[in-house]
Specification:
heterodimer, A: about 120 residues, mainly beta, four-stranded antiparallel sheet, 12 strands, about 50% strand, B: about 110 residues, 11 strands, about 0% helix
Chain lengths: ~120, ~110
């Protein structure tokens, strides 16, 4: 069975601080995919990143970066120099070897950026 | 513009009534999905379909039904058998294109049972 744990329910930081959102996963598949989605107050889930289990390189996209560590089954997400627009609920998700099956979601982390 | 539309945005239903949520996509995606989100929880899969006229149950299919008569459309019916239907419902689609496949989501429908 697959499982995703986001232990941080809510985080608040002051604008311009860096913040890391944790994601720990469990799966028996040797090939799998990991995702991060952002859910702003409007409710729509916005896709941020997809990562194949064979690719452990860290990824950076502007102020966003992701640290994938297979050894600890973690896929953490860091926002550098946070902005008020980053306030949202962030979900980590896991799928099986084909990447397009059911997504198993964590319970989400609500991030509030204080101006 | 390509995307996924869901309607209505807000829906109110009396107990004992069936209600149908609409989901349409113009991305030419093969697969479509319905998820349910409850406060403070992640999304849970209700049904999914990878081809027209075929669909599979997800983790919480009881009390729901779907149809896939057209590639672009995947309506979800919440029946009176669903014991706790008040939730936020999200539809998603994906291309089944292998390496780059990703599920993209619509804006959601918030259903409240009165």
């Amino acid at each position: 069975a697959q499982k995703v744990t986001q232990a941080q329910t809510e985080i608040s930081v002051v604008e311009k601080e860096d913040v890391t959102l944790d994601c720990v996963y469990e799966t028996r598949d040797t090939t799998y995919y990991l995702f991060w989605y952002k859910q702003p107050p409007s409710g729509e889930l916005v896709f941020l990143i997809r990562r194949n289990s064979f690719d452990e390189q860290n990824e950076i996209s502007g102020r966003y970066s992701w640290n994938f560590q297979k050894s600890t089954s973690s896929f953490n997400f860091t926002i550098t120099a946070s902005q008020v627009v980053d306030s949202a609920v962030y979900f980590c998700a896991l799928s099986g070897p084909f990447g397009n099956e059911k997504l198993t979601f964590g319970t989400g982390t609500r991030l509030t950026i204080i101006p | 513009d390509g995307g996924i539309t869901q309607s209505p945005k807000y829906l109110f239903r009396k107990e004992g009534q069936n209600v149908t949520l609409s989901c349409e996509q113009n991305l030419n995606h093969d697969a479509m999905y319905w998820y349910r989100q409850d406060p403070g929880q992640g999304l849970r899969l209700i049904y999914y379909s990878q081809i027209v006229n075929d669909f599979q149950k997800g983790d919480i299919a009881e009390g729901y039904s779907v149809s896939r008569e057209k590639k672009e459309s995947f309506p979800l019916t919440v029946t009176s058998a669903q014991k706790n239907p008040t939730a936020f419902y999200l539809c998603a689609s994906s291309s089944l294109a292998g390496e780059e496949d990703t599920q993209y989501f619509g804006p959601g429908t918030r259903l409240t049972v009165l």
